[in-house]
Amino acid sequence: MSHQTDARAPRVKNRAPAAIQITAEQLLREAQERQEVAFRAPKQRVEDFEELHEYRGRKRKEFEERIRRTRGNIKEWTAYASWEASQGEFDRSRSVYERALDVDGRNIRLWLSYTEMELKSRNVQHARNLFDRAVTLLPRIDQLWYKYVYLEELLQNVPGARQVFERWMKWEPEDKAWQAYIKMEERYGELDRASTIYERWVAIRPDPRVWVKWAKFEEERSNLEKCRQVFQTALEFFGDDEEQVEKAQAVFGAFARMETRLKEYDRARVIYKFALSRLPRSKSAALYASYTKFEKQHGDRAGVESTVLGKRRIQYEEEITNDPRNYDVWFDYARLEEDAFRADRADGGETAADAEKVREVYERAVAQVPPGSEKRFWRRYIFLWLNYALFEEIETRRFTFAKLWLMLARFEIRQLDLVAVRKTLGAAIGMCPKEALFKGYIQLELELREFDRVRTLYEKYLEYDPTNCSAWIKFAELESTLGDLQPLDMPELLWKAYIDLEVEEGERERARTLYERLLDRSGHVKVWIAYALFEGANIGAGAGDEEEQGEEDVAEENKGNPQKARAVFERGYKDLKGHEWTDRVALLEAWKTFESEHGTSEDVAHVQGLMPQATKRRRKINEAGDQEEYWDMVFADDERKANPTGFKFLQMAHAWKESQAKNSAGAIAIAAATQDGNQVTEDVEMSDAGKEASDEESDSGSDKE
């Protein structure tokens, strides 16, 4: 019990206030007075150099002890180096800084303190060297570059400052660095250099604001053509992509405002309209506001109404974005577009695009199907369809609901009336051909296995839209599935038409590629001849009538090259060795005709030397060894490789025959020089007879072809 009494707090017997009250201010004053005075080192007075030396040694020892204990504390190093500099010991100060850089060479404050020490002591060259080392080690620290450039410009070393900027720009720094470089060039009147810097800046960072800054700079120095060129280049860079055009709003706006300042109102209006036609309505509010202000100041009534119309479109788009099933807004939006359509038609400016705008709004509206099946949800929605149908019936005079036609056809199918189905879909395609109608009709006939009708529908589909790649692919897949792969009747006509097209267009390289592909497939003698004549003839513009148009009218790449033609003839002659001898003879005849028109007598003689000769030969006809004589066409190069001696003898025989025709008296001398003159004469006569037979056979072969 006594223990519980002791644990309780003591009672205060006297609750009356004290006679003397102690305030908080008095407590603070007494606490301050009772504090001990902080220790202050006594001031020392140095009387001579010996004391100075002793003082410096003691201080250095203290600093060394500090940096030994806290080696990574850069403040101790900078304090040590600053003290050495204050004593005029700059070499020692540099030594301390260099030791500190070995500890933490990437500390920016250390480099700045080091360079500041050199500048205070007017050691400019040392400071330059330090800045050069610093920016080499830390090229991404803009503060070091700024101080380096400032030092060079302060010393009036403009080329040096420009050189530092060029080193800096190679690292593609932030925009402030590019602006600093441009400002420096402007201060010294180097405007062309500044324009070049803007061009480099835009190439590295093609943001709209950079394009606008560059154009404004050109405008301020009254170079208006260059200013317009900058804007046009910017718009070409951003292109027609929706996302890129959205980024370029600032460029469009600045371009239009520039033309407005120059009082080129028509140019500015074209720029505004061009931009707004490519921007989505929901993302062009700022540009529309600027355009509206422009039209109110400088436009006419029609322009103001058009801008107000665009502004209202944006308002409706914002409301629809917030609540897509707000059908009252859809009604107002559709009514707005219908009024604009009627106004354009009244002014005579109605276009298909105006009607498409109305259809687009209605299509988007009817796509917002009510969330439930209760009638109260559908009461407003159904009027969208009714208004859409009335617009198509009354305003555009046509009915273009593909889905409605298809649903009607499905209804007729359920009624088992196939004739009505085909009549319905045929009427739909005749009245308003649309892709969905063709697809639905084709699918229906596919399900009914009426493949002939499907082919007919695909043909009509492709007549309606020949650029539809999907339709071509589906048509080909159908034929492949049915196994109806028809080969081309005369593919050579297709190749010829293709090559003639490229020749007429002057596309020599494309035509050459086609010839090479055709040779890989066929290797026919006619292809070789046509290819060679193509290489030797002029093509394209100026190559039609040589009498009316000279060589100077033909482009250099379209002029014929006889050397290339000869090379093709050579390739063809070698390639046709494995073919019938008539093919090689036909090639040589064409080659000879070409050389007679474009070559020299030596070229003609070269081709003539390749012509074959008819030669009598013997061959075994049975195992008993009986032989028979036959005539064979021998080409010069083939005989030369097979029997060099016999070929030489044959050449001598032909030479004798020719000389005999010119001078009959020379025959005796040639016969005497030849060991077997009688045999030579016989071979020559048989050769002539064989050649005549060969010519007849060649003529008959040509007739067959």
TrEMBL record:
Region (Disordered): 541-564, 674-705
Keywords: mRNA processing, mRNA splicing, Nucleus, Repeat, Spliceosome
Keyword Cell membrane set for record: no
Biased composition (Acidic residues): 544-555, 694-705
Pfam family, any one: HAT_Syf1_CNRKL1_N
CC annotations in GO: post-mRNA release spliceosomal complex; precatalytic spliceosome; Prp19 complex; U2-type catalytic step 2 spliceosome
Primary residence: nucleus
SUPFAM superfamilies to which the protein is assigned, alphabetical: TPR-like (SSF48452)
Any GO BP annotation: spliceosomal complex assembly
Entry superkingdom: Eukaryota
Family: Belongs to the crooked-neck family.
Protein name, per record: Pre-mRNA-splicing factor CLF1
Species this protein is from: Hydnum rufescens UP504
